Amino acid sequence: MGIISSVYHCQWDAVENKSTVIIYGGGALVAVWLSATLVGAINSVPLLPKLMELVGLGYTGWFVYRYLLFKLFQDCTDVQATL
Q: Where in the cell is it found (predicted)?
């Protein structure tokens, strides 16, 4: 445990703008708290969770179709062309 704390202490001493790091860290915590509160509020409305799940599933399918599926086929044809 002493090694970890000494490494952490050295890293923290190397930071020039400590106040900026603290402000960014605090802002990140506030953003996580705010997003959790927003998701909890949306989840309490009866119809919205299922609708959001459907939108997320549709977006995931579109993303795979658009960016991953054709990229896989393109990579496979590139490899076959080089052979």
A: Membrane
